UniProtKB/TrEMBL annotation:
The chain crosses the membrane at residues 12-30, 101-124. Pathway: Protein modification; protein glycosylation. This is Chitobiosyldiphosphodolichol beta-mannosyltransferase. GO terms for cellular component: endoplasmic reticulum membrane. The keyword Transmembrane helix applies. It comes from Suillus luteus UH-Slu-Lm8-n1. It is a single-pass membrane protein.
Length: 526
């Protein structure tokens, strides 16, 4: 009885006003039909935290630099990249969250009410926050409901051209929670097909996604693949940058790591005595260098959700701990014999995991119990500001990706960020991963914990002088230094080792793929 009364009160105070606002907004949309869309303007809609939607932020930056009045619409949360607040023709429009009571009722009831509230707030933003209908409306998919239907409606009525940026398939993510055969999953798939099939243009994060949707859904509109790329400020860090980062992050490092790290205050770098004395004498800047006794810094970024199995990484670290004890003990015994050639050793690993999500507390509690008995591995969870994240990647020795993809048609942005920082990657295998990760060229691929542990041992042997790891770094460095027309150069030299791995900055790719679409020359796109 109490639950029924609570739901009734919620419906009266939240759902009914949202429905009334929705009717009011639809009426106002009809009034705006009479206005001509403003040329060189775009509304970019992402139904998520704007600061955690890098691809959409990069889209906004690229549109703004092209001279477009740019409206980025989404939810407030993490700090967005600096350019979004520094470019005068970018405006951030934040959506309001649904009422807290939504989280207290069953999903089947909460979902339609949440969608109703989202429809009202999105329409309000599109109708009132943007003075004139934009020339383009770009929408991130997923989530598909209700955004695809809204931009289809508003774009059709106002004359705006709709661009769908396909990151993944919304129904496949819902299937992770409800199962492939669930009624709501089937409804979501039909919704996505109906409202996503037709648009002015479709952008895809992989060739596999483009091919699948073209063949299975018969998409209508211009179609182009825009592979993810990091922005230009992502780079491999110099020792001074590594030094300054960890001095700044020192307060976030757990005191429990004091006995594991060579120095709690300077875990990766040191100041040579000669540099200190020279700096005092000449008043010149101190030049730090990387410590030879530093641990190997491994980084993984995760949303701590079921589509990223952290258990694989945890099991691999267990295996590595066991192997490090065995190998290093044997090395110690052999080194005591004058007639024995010294064996190569395995270093300590400092595994840093960034991100937030529902499974974080569960896994980190398990880690804390395990590493009480570990000698060679420590695992730390950190949450970094947007400006520090690329610096951490640029300071690391190896990246780990556990992304498995609900549709097997998208690629993890975290690997793109790592490559942009010159960081080799060990990535969990799935269908279209070879579009990005080339085993033995820019990283390694694993299917289970034992394969990941094997790669860790191979890549980290003799660290910091690791031939296998250095080979991957060299490939990444060459790729990051190629000229702007490198992608075409690569296609013409596919017989060379690793030449089928394409790369280029976000700006280069965007100008080649998207710029012709929005400037009226779609035949040049792609």
């Amino acid at each position: 009885m109490i639950a029924n009364k609570s739901f009734h009160d919620f419906f009266v105070f939240a759902a009914l006003p949202s429905l009334a606002l929705l009717v009011f907004l639809v009426v106002n949309v009809f009034q705006k039909v009479r206005q001509t869309p403003k040329l060189r303007s775009v509304a970019i809609l992402v139904l998520g935290d704007v600061g955690r939607s890098p691809r959409m932020m990069y889209h906004a930056e690229s549109f703004a630099k092209l001279g477009f009045d740019t409206y980025l619409i989404g939810y407030k949360g993490s700090k967005p990249i600096l350019s979004l607040t520094s470019l005068s023709n970018i405006r951030l429009s934040y959506l309001s969250e649904s009422p807290p009571l939504v989280t207290r009722i069953p999903f089947v009831l909460a979902a339609p009410i949440k969608i109703l509230y989202q429809i009202a707030t999105i329409l309000y933003t599109l109708v009132f926050d943007i003075p004139r209908p934009p020339e383009f409306i770009m929408v991130q998919n997923p989530p598909s409901i209700p955004t695809l239907a809204l931009v289809w409606l508003v774009g059709g009525m106002m004359g705006s051209k709709v661009i769908i940026d396909w990151h993944n398939l919304g129904y496949s993510i819902l299937a992770l929670k409800l199962g492939q055969t669930h009624l709501l999953v089937n409804i979501a798939k039909r919704f996505e097909i109906i409202f996503g099939r037709s648009a002015y243009a479709h952008l895809f994060v992989t060739n596999a996604m483009r091919n699948h949707l073209e063949q299975e859904w018969g998409l209508i509109g211009h179609k182009a693949v825009l592979h993810d790329r990091p922005p230009s400020h992502f780079h491999k860090c110099l020792p001074l940058e590594v030094h300054e980062l960890f001095v700044r992050l020192g307060h976030l490092i757990s005191p429990a790591l004091a006995d594991f790290l060579p120095s709690a205050s300077l875990p990766l770098t040191e100041i040579p005595p000669s540099s200190t004395s020279r700096a005092s004498a000449l008043s010149s800047p101190i030049t730090p260098k990387l410590r030879k006794d530093r641990p190997a810094l491994l980084v993984s970024s995760t949303s701590w959700t079921p589509d990223e199995d952290f258990g694989i990484l945890l099991e691999a670290l267990k295996i590595y701990e066991s192997r490090a004890r065995e190998v290093n003990l044997t090395n110690c015994e052999n080194s005591q014999s004058k007639h024995s050639k010294e064996r190569q050793v395995l270093p300590r690993i400092w595994m840093v995991i960034t991100g937030k999500g529902p499974l974080k507390d569960r896994y980190m509690a398990e880690v804390e119990l395990l590493q009480k008995d570990w000698q060679y591995v420590r695992c730390t969870s950190l949450w970094l500001e947007a400006e520090d994240y690329p610096l951490l990647l640029g300071s690391a020795d190896l990246g780990i990706s556990l992304h498995s993809s609900s549709s097997a048609l998208d690629l993890p942005m975290k690997i793109v960020d790592m490559f942009g920082c010159g960081l080799p990657v060990c990535a969990l295998d799935f269908a279209c991963l070879p579009e990005l990760v080339k085993a033995g060229i820019n990283g390694q691929v694993f299917r289970n914990a034992s394969e990941l542990a094997e790669h860790l041992e191979t890549l980290l042997t003799s660290f910091p002088l690791s031939p296998a790891l250095d080979s991957l770094r060299t490939t990444l460095q060459r790729a990051l230094q190629v000229p702007p027309n490198a992608e075409h150069h690569v296609r013409n030299h596919e017989h060379q080792e690793g030449a089928d791995w394409e790369w280029g900055s976000w700006s280069e790719n965007w100008n080649r793929v998207v710029k012709p679409l929005v400037l009226g020359d779609p035949e040049r796109s792609g």
